[in-house]
Design brief:
The structure holds two protein chains of two kinds. Chain A is flat and about 45 Å long. By secondary structure, chain A is α+β, with helices and mostly antiparallel strands. Chain A starts with a strand and ends in a 5-residue tail after the last strand. Helices cover 30% and strands 30% of the residues of chain A. In chain A, the strands form two sheets. A four-stranded antiparallel sheet of chain A has the order 2-5-1-6. In chain A, strands 3-4 form a two-stranded antiparallel sheet. Chain A has a single domain, classed as Dimeric alpha+beta barrel (Alpha-Beta Plaits, 2-Layer Sandwich), CATH 3.30.70.1060. Chain B folds into four domains: 102 residues; 124 residues, no CATH class; 70 residues; 56 residues, no CATH class. The longest helix of chain B is centred in the middle third of the chain and has 24 residues. Chain B is elongated. Classes of the chains: A alpha+beta, B mainly alpha. Chains A and B meet through helix 1 and strand 5 of A and helix 1 and helix 2 of B.
Chain lengths: 112, 420
């Protein structure tokens, strides 16, 4: 078994409130299904869109939000699955990717 | 736990109203962004963490925080509503002020104030309804366009025009002054009535009925009735007619998706709860001297709602009510409905006489049910050739496939009559 991080970017597609409600339902169902299947290693945390970026030795501080909102990471989840292919299959079913967002699948680097 | 139906839509309306109070209507774009951001946040957080204990409260706090955020960042470049402008200019008062203004008890009034703001007399009625649906109803511009079967650019233009009028007013409409309230009230009635009847009669492609708009109108009229100045007999009558008509929505389309006329409704499907509410509201509407068009329309709907079928309907009372309605609103459509009632009460020959006597009937010639009504009367009199040709005229004027199908079925029925 290997661990992968699913990294979410919400995208900049604007959903209407009614579409949001449908989308939220899909997300909750999707997440619950993963929990039921026991593939969630760590549910992760949602990240807020504001904040700061610190750059360089001088510690230059830039205000968020960063660049464009579609590039913004909105959260991540750790899953434990057989291989990359399985992780990708899971990412494909993620509702975030169905409404203009994206899901990045990254292997968690082993330390030894 | 599940969210209530239309949760985000309704919350969007609430939040927009409250933030508009704080920022002023000239910043309604900004308000829209903050509201949208709060909802997006909710999506991201809730989908991972599950729903919070109090989703409405969560969302309002998120929107408030976003509002404060934007305020801090953009304060210098914006002018705010005169109502709170002074306080917003001090960094120190922002947080506590926003806390106070997003208090639950204050929010109810905000929606009413935004409703009144939307019904600006300088705006065409269609723009009033469009911004009401967009800002207060939480429909996207695309959804408004779909409901009205208008192109997106047309609706965008309508909403932009509405936005301009809102910006010019600056602060939300003040509902605490009775004289101002009463002056604007007829506009509000009219916009709510138009919203409801568009949902009920549709007349748009593929969607002859739009329950969403009817429900929205009912929700908004309830907000009006929540305010002491809003509890007029006319407002009660308006709410009553909405409920009594909404009761029929489940039977307006039959199980195969075909439009049915009142005469063919499966009345067992009528919504008893709506009828009950409509009757209670009608009683409140009848407590004064006023007899408005809304009263008469509600009374007519109440007579239908009280009858188990077409035959046992009190058509004489309905004719009386149409007589009264025609005095208040001498329109050819009202005259046509009166003629249909007379046909029921006194026979199809009398109905045809009445139709022939309608003043300004030329205005009805593009209305399919003008021809269909005559066709039905001819059919009852066994004058099948005339019935058939009238149905064909109706068919030519049909506005959507569902109406067309209904009329094709009637043309077939007449054909069978000939053979038989």
């Amino acid at each position: 078994m290997s661990e992968f991080a699913l990294v979410y970017r919400a995208g900049d597609e604007k959903l209407s409130p009614e579409e949001m409600q449908v989308h939220l339902k899909h997300c909750l169902d999707w997440f619950k299904d993963l929990l039921d299947r026991g593939v969630i290693k760590d549910p992760g945390v949602p990240l807020g869109p504001t904040g700061s970026v610190v750059v360089g030795r001088q510690g230059t501080v830039h205000d968020g939000p960063f660049a464009e909102s579609k590039d913004l990471i909105s959260g991540f989840t750790l899953v434990e699955v057989k291989d990359l292919a399985e992780a990708i299959e899971i990412a494909k079913t993620c509702p975030v990717a169905h409404v203009g967002g994206s899901v990045e699948v990254r292997p968690v680097q082993a330390c030894r | 736990m599940d969210l209530p139906e239309h949760f985000f839509r309704h919350e969007t309306g609430r939040i927009t109203a409250t933030l508009s109070k704080i920022f002023g209507l000239q910043n309604v774009d900004l308000v829209e962004d903050a509201t949208q951001d709060a909802c997006s946040r909710a999506l991201e957080v809730w989908s991972v963490r599950g729903l919070p204990e109090n989703p409405s409260g969560w969302l309002m706090v998120a929107a408030r925080n976003r509002a404060v955020d934007i305020l801090r960042r953009e304060r210098r470049n914006r002018t705010f509503s005169t109502e709170y402008g002074q306080l917003l200019n001090s960094e120190w008062t922002i947080s506590s002020l926003v806390d106070e203004l997003t208090d639950v008890s204050a929010i109810k009034d905000d929606q009413l104030r935004l409703m009144f703001s939307c019904c600006h007399p300088r705006l065409p009625e269609e723009a009033q309804v469009a911004i009401m649906l967009h800002y207060l109803g939480g429909l996207s511009i695309k959804e408004v366009a779909q409901a009205y079967l208008s192109g997106l650019p047309a609706v965008e233009k309508r909403i932009a025009r509405g936005k301009k009028a809102l910006a010019a007013s600056g602060t939300l409409f003040d509902v605490s002054q009775r004289s101002d309230f009463e002056e604007r009230l007829p506009n509000v009635y009219r916009a709510l009535y138009l919203l409801f009847s568009h949902g009920y009669h549709g007349g748009s492609q593929d969607a002859p009925v739009q329950p969403l708009l009817c429900r929205e109108a009912i929700r908004l009229v309830a907000i009006l009735l929540d305010h002491p100045f809003g509890r007029t007999t006319e407002a009660y009558a308006l709410a009553s007619l909405m409920h009594l008509h909404a009761a029929r929505l489940p039977s307006k389309m039959n199980s195969t998706g075909e439009l049915t006329q009142l005469f063919d409704h499966d009345r067992s499907k009528w919504d008893r709860e709506h009828i009950q509410s409509g009757m209670v509201l009608l009683a409140s509407a009848s407590s004064g001297q006023a007899l408005t068009e809304f009263h008469i329309e509600a009374l007519i709907a109440a007579v239908h709602a009280s009858a188990v079928d077409v035959a046992s309907t009190d058509w004489n009372t309905i004719v009386e009510l149409y007589n009264a309605l025609l005095l208040l609103n001498p329109s050819p459509v009202v005259a046509l409905n009166r003629a249909i009632a007379i046909s029921q009460a006194e026979g199809p020959e009398r109905g045809l006489d009445e139709i022939a006597g309608i003043a300004d009937a030329a205005r009805l010639e593009s209305y399919p049910f003008y021809w269909a009504a005559q066709a039905e009367m001819f059919a009852l009199l066994q004058r099948s050739a005339e019935a058939k040709s009238s149905f064909e005229k109706a068919h030519a004027m049909a506005r959507n496939p569902v109406e067309r199908k209904l009329l094709e079925k009637r043309i077939d029925d007449i054909g069978d009559l000939d053979v038989g």
